[in-house]
Amino acid sequence: MLAQEIIRTQRDGLPLTTAQIQHFVRGLVDHSWSEGQVAAMAMAVFLRGLDRDACVALTDAMMRSGRVLTWPNMPGPVLDKHSSGGVGDKVSLMLAPMVAACGGYVPMISGRGLGHTGGTCDKLEAIPGYCATPDAARFDQVVRSVGCAIIGQTADLAPADRRLYAIRDVTATVESVPLITASILSKKLAAGLQGLVMDVTCGNGAFADTRSMADALAHSIVDVAHGAGLRTTALVTDMNHVRGRNAGNALEVAEAVAYLTGTPLATSFSGSRPGSPTAPPAGSSHGASMGNMNRGGLNAARDPRLHEVTLALGAELLVLGGLAPNPAAARTQLQTALDSGAAAERFARMVAALGGPTDLLERPHAHLAAAPVVVPAPALRAGVLGTVDTRAIGLAVVELGGGRRKPGDPIDWRVGLSGFAAPAQRLAAGEPITWVHAADAASAARAVEQVQAACCVGDGETLVTPCVLGRFGAGNA
Q: What distance in Å separates the CA atoms of residue 117 and residue 40, rounded to the nearest whole number?
């Protein structure tokens, strides 16, 4: 079987056989397909697409290209959640221990930051000592004993996807629905899951920046997952604003800790050392901006939109796993896991079991690195926070050092943005839209200008997009 003939078949829009797809995947792993041939195949798929059966075959072959995890004698369902990415998206950090506290087992294999979006694995590595790359035996032991473990992708899981993605990344073929679908699901199937919920983010801070693309991706993932035997639902969620209030690795861990413990974010971790000349003064608006302003009786530790997305995704998982009869009952169980402290306890145990500090929840400020410079990004006029260029906000965090410009770049865990104003929040002139955490004054000043340019503060009311825009699953996929 010749690689060029398989490429020709796909180029001409003719159906590929399962044998042809398997030949392509073997070529990815053993390098019998050259980079030029892989790139040509990726472009042919990008331009011509794949039908559902071909995408199932590609997903299955990539899943079987490496080790496939199994979870024999697990006393509960093996479940996971995956997001297509966004800015400030720390949902996984809270959701995994919440589901574990409700009886699920979550072997979450997470990714690193990509472009303007942050990566869950990077966030957890902001915790001193946390091992995001444990060996297989340790990963198995932590999942079984704690109920959840969040780690980075290992080299032996879906290795075909790793090579294909690296080539897609430099050949302008990333935004292909069938290739995105196969990439995500091959890794999730290799993790041995029994149920998956997909968070397809949609908006100017997401890769799927239009509703039509987000719906197409959600439908594809659900359809192909079902074809591969994995029960899956997908939610399309809003990413036209920073998710939660903080963006940046240590700052997002701090927000997750505050969310799980119910501790107001300003007192749990300010992101600046007490007494620092650049720290916001005691009693300033910084304390309020780090939480929810506690307006309308809201818990200052839990941004309401972040909370809604977390509950919605978690409810899907509990129903998929047979742990709740319906979403309403599932949401009650998840809220109880939060309020009782059971979810926080699972997170603490996971961190300690993977090498992190045993008292992170009690003393996050003692363990999470703080930036030496913290300055406000003030609103240039009074008004209501309207449109936010969320992608530009994510890029500002990357330029501060909170992400990678190229593979292998080091990350500054300390930097980012905290206390980001909520959608449609009314601001006085000079009131912080957010607080910038930076390594030096020059980078802080640049970030302030970027935030101000990305945020529209104007007159009148602003329409706030719902947190959850759509659902794809049984009966509506």
A: 27
60-63: long-range contacts (C-beta < 8 A, 24 or more apart)? 60/186, 60/189, 60/228, 61/21, 61/22, 61/24, 61/25, 61/160, 62/25, 62/28, 62/158, 62/160, 62/161, 62/164, 62/182, 62/183, 62/186, 63/158, 63/185, 63/186, 63/187, 63/189, 63/190, 63/228
Question: What is the maximum alpha-carbon separation in the chain?
Answer: 72
pLDDT attached to residue 269: 43
Which range (162-166, 196-200, 348-352) has the least confidence? Answer: 162-166
The encoded tokens of residue 476 equal 């509506």
Judge contact between 149 and 157, C-beta under 8 A: no
Please identify, in words, the CATH class of the domain defined by 79-242+307-357. alpha beta
Cα 325 to the center of its chain, rounded Å: 27
Question: Are the CB atoms for 227 and 58 separated by under 8 Å?
Answer: no
pTM: 0.88
Can you name the residues that pair with 417 across neighbouring β-strands? 247, 436
Residues 19 and 31: their CA atoms lie apart, in Å, by 17
d(CA 140, CA 136): 6
For residue 382, give both structure tokens.
């009074």
Give percent above pLDDT 90 in the chain. Answer: 77
Asked if the model's pLDDT at residue 381 lies above 70, the reply is: yes
Task: Give me the residue label for tokens 């980075």.
Answer: 152
Residues marked active site are found at 80-83, 120, 168, 183, 187-188
Q: Residue ranges per domain, the chain?
A: 3-49, 79-242+307-357
- Distant-in-sequence, close-in-space partners of 255: CB < 8 Å, separation ≥ 6: 90, 244, 245, 246, 265, 303
Helix (H) or strand (E) holding 311: helix 304-320
3-state secondary structure of 269: coil
Average pLDDT over every residue of 105-113: 82
Give the DSSP per-residue string, 370-425: --SEEEEEE-SSSEEEEEE-HHHHHHHHIIIIIS-SSTT----TT-EEESPPPTT-
**pLDDT of 299:** 45
Segment among 13-17, 120-124, 443-447 with least mean pLDDT: 120-124
249, 271 Cβ separation under 8 angstroms: no
239 confidence band (pLDDT: 50, 70, 90):
very high
Cβ-Cβ contacts under 8 Å for 57 (sequence gap 6 or more): 16, 18, 21, 22
